[in-house]
Each structure stands twice: as C-alpha cells, then as structure tokens.
Amino acid sequence: MTAVKTTETAAPAGGNTPPALPPAVTGGARKRRRRGGAFDRALPYLLLAPALIAILWLIGFPVVSVFVTSFRELNLGELVRGEIVWTGIDNYVTVLQDSRFWDVTVRTIVFTVAVVVASVGAGLLIALLMRVLTPWVRIALQVAMLCAWAMPILASTTVYQWIFDQNYGILNKTLVQLGFDSYAGYSWFSSGTSTLSVVGLLIIWQAIPFLAFSLYAGLVGIPRDLYEAAGIDGATGWQTFRAVTWPEIRSLLMMVTFLSTLWDFKVFAQIWVFREGGPSGESTTLPVLQYLEGIAKSHFGVAAAISVLMMVILGLITFQYLRKLLQTEEGKL
Description:
- Helices cover 73% and strands 0% of the residues.
- It is built from 13 helices and no strands.
- Helix 5 crosses helix 8, helix 8 packs across helix 10 and helix 9 crosses helix 10.
- It is flat.
C-alpha cells in the first residue's frame, strides 16, 4: 500500500499554541503602536492648544502692549500723525523723579493693607459666626450678603454718597439725633484721609460676602471629629481655633488674602466717583494717577510706565504670599 503525502504540518503536543507570525508583521505592529502612543500623548496638548493660544493672546498681548508703550512718547499728536517716537526710559525717569508719584504710592500701599486686613478679618469672623448660627438665621444672613454682593459698584457708591452727604446724609442726621450736635453739616470728604476711610468702608462692605462665603466653604469641610476630639481634651475656643481650624483654612485664607490684595490695590471706580482723587489730590491712588496721566492729560506713554511700575510694586507686595503659598502642603510643586 502506497503512503499518501500530506501538506499539513504536525501540531505541537499541546495543540493550543498558534503559529508564529513572520518578523515583518510583528515589526509593523510595533511601529503602529509606537506611532499611536505618541499621537495619544500629544492629543491632549493639541486639544488644549486653541484655548491656550486664545488665553495668551487675550492676556499676554495687552501686557506686552503696555510694556512697549511705556518706552514711547505716545500722545494725541503722535496718534494723529501716526508716528512712533521712542523715548527709551525717559517715561520711567519722569515718573520716578516726581515726588507726587512716591506720595501716591505710599498712600496706595497703606490704603490697600488697611482694607485687606479689615475685609479679610471681617469675612473670617462672619464665616466663623455662620457655623454656630441656627439654619434660618444663617440663611437670612447669606441672602443679605448675596444682595449686597449683587449690587453694582456705581449703585452702591451712590448709596454711600447719600449716606455720608454733608447736608442730607442719614448718618449726620442720626448722629445729631443721638446728641452729637457737632456732626450737623459735617463734611466727611473734607480731607483725603476721611475720603479714603469712607471709600475703604465701601470696599470692605462689598468684599465681605465673597470672603465670608469662601472661608465658610473651607470651614464646612473640616471634619467634626477634630472638634469633638479637641472638646474631649478640654481645649478652649481659642485653642480649638489655633489647633484645628487655623491649620485647615490657612491655605484658603492666604489665597483669598492674595486675591483681595490684587483687587484692592487697583480700585479705581469708587475713588473716582466719590471725589475724583480729591480734595486737592489727597485721595489719589496709583490707578487714579494713571487715569489722570493717560486720559486727562493724554500722556499715554507716562501712564503705561505707571502701569508697569504698579505691576512691579504689586509683585513685591504679594511676593511673601506667593512664597508662603508654595511652601504649604497643598501648594508644593
């Protein structure tokens, strides 16, 4: 009997091992996987690129434009003629040699520090108070703060102007009714100090809702077990705040303080609406000075130089906050 030849290959003993693929096939698969892996890693950045470019354009271009303008003699004549006149650092020299600039700078820093300390302190106290209030009282307080927060700046500034009005203000009339006859016809805007005090009170009133809500959100997130443990150990209210509350909200408190510093340092509308930096320029701050130089006098190059110096001063003021924020556990890079 003749044996029949077959082309089938004998299967391995196990019977389950698939035949090996040619080297060309496996190499191509590895190349496709490498190409796919690189594309997958780059895909998030490609998706974020349009938004990042838009943000850099909207934020970076104005900053660069102000910096470039600070080295130009930009005024109405130059704008009309379409000329570009470079002055180097002359604008900075003019600003830094002006004694009024330094007086206004010191006034702005003192005003900012006072307002930030008062507003953050008041916001923290109200946030702590909301933790112990009954639900209905807390809701009423929160609604009142939301109404104050929602009021437009110009509207609230007008209300404060009427409250502190010399002849028709409710404050003077109330003080007279209480027996303080010297406040009849008293002018709260006769000096720069009193004017900035009223403006500072308005800014504090406007800032408290945001600060109180932000800090209250941080307080709510603190586990109650920590307070119960402190109560079992016999800790007083101050000791509980220092050992439990403060470590938990320190980073948040630093952040809202940093934001308040940024906002209060560049306050313009309230000061300008009250007395336009008066009387006699005694309530002028750096944003008002920048407006007077740029818009009123059309010295846009000098105003740009003031803007750059404002950014430098603000960076120096907030440097310690940024450094401490990066040193906290949540802010470590």
